[in-house]
Fold this sequence. Notes:
By secondary structure, the chain is α/β, with parallel strands linked by helices. The chain has 15 helices and 18 strands.
Amino acid sequence: MNIIFIAAEASPFAKVGGLGDVVGALPPALANRGFSVKVIIPGYRSTWNYKTEPLTQLSNLTVTLGNRVVASQVRRWQNPAQAQHEVYFIDNPEYFGQRDVYCDENGKPYSDNPERFILFQKAALKLIAETRWSPDIIHCHDYHTALIPVYLKKNLAQVPPFNTLKSVLTLHNIAYQGDCEMQLKEICDLPEELFMPMGALEWYNRLNPLKGGIIFADAVTTVSPTHAREIMTDEELGAGMGGVLANRPTPVLGILNGIDTAEWNPVTDVYLFMPYSISNLAGKKVNKVKLIEILGLNPALESRPLLGIVSRLVEQKGIALLIDGLEKILSLGAGFVILGSGEQNYQRELKRLANQFSDRMAVKFDYDNVLAHRIIAGSDLFLMPSRFEPCGITQMYALNYGAVPVVHHTGGLADTVIPWDGKDGNGFAFREYRAEAMLKTVCEALQVFEKPDEWRKIIINGMSADFSWDRAATKYIALYENLINNKI
């Protein structure tokens, strides 16, 4: 089977969030299973940090944007460990060149982002045509590539090799839809009826690429089973797309993301003070003691529960709930360690609390990968009070490291964290999105922490789970095969 991934990000070449993680990890997992996998992303500034080769036969890959003819070049990266995994970069000095993925150095989105990704999608399809690849599946991701299923059905349905392939569109965050001014239809080169009122690409008099992709993709997936149900039934979580999703001939399929178990493995993690395993947890206590020491917290916390958070400090992640409940949690004798950055009002309040409780609470407003590993290894509990979470991977890291998660029961958090019932489970969850519900659940977790036998069982349950990309790859392979065999 030949599979082509087309996306705006792919780790490690260009990564902003979870999308980059998925497109960086799933293709090699599929290649390891014997499939030929090619990935196409834009050639941003960061991609030049990797050893690539130009495709000289494609030194002038041209597409039209309205009345303009725009030329791009193509580079290729070959996975040295897996010959069947390749990454191709669409290079264009004007649109990508020395730019980052979505935003400038000040965090401001590029004003021409819609045009950039229309160019990218056209160039990706042109690359496939000119190299005469014969893909069975084109797997698109989020709004940046959502026009591709539209092109396949409306412009290329009779054109080899596109006439026989199937398309998959994965929604990593349905709230981002790429809607833009309707005048950009002039550079799309798609039939006019798609832009008419109630047309597949029309959304409140604007152009909405994601809507079109949802309508025309052969299969639509999202990154957890619970989130798949949520976006089809909850108007807020579906970001207005519930009706569009409901009108598809097949429902959204939720496939849980995996984690990189080569990097996130407490047995081999080079960032830890001491490795540990499910059969020998002694190192986990060493990591807790050393974490408390390097952060300058009270040594008395070594015998008390230590909670950790590694997160963007934004509204979606439940930081307001956290701030509302922090003083109560700290008053119970627990310690707290927070790593992340985000909204300034949240940072100010967390800094105030850290100053007030300096012996029990530490914050760092940054993303420090080494410290992230050490917090997850050294924490007894890991808090994720997200208002919504399509998948979430940090709770999987926590489970893998024996840091017991306390989460809001939503999306992928609900699919991975099984609430402890006194006999079984791997964490704790609250269903109502309120600070009081979060606090009650944290208090329940702290009570169980005082019962070593129960606590150890919760840790072992979490560390026993399989969150590898191989598990996720198996589910995607089944989807691809069903599409090819017309069983969907």
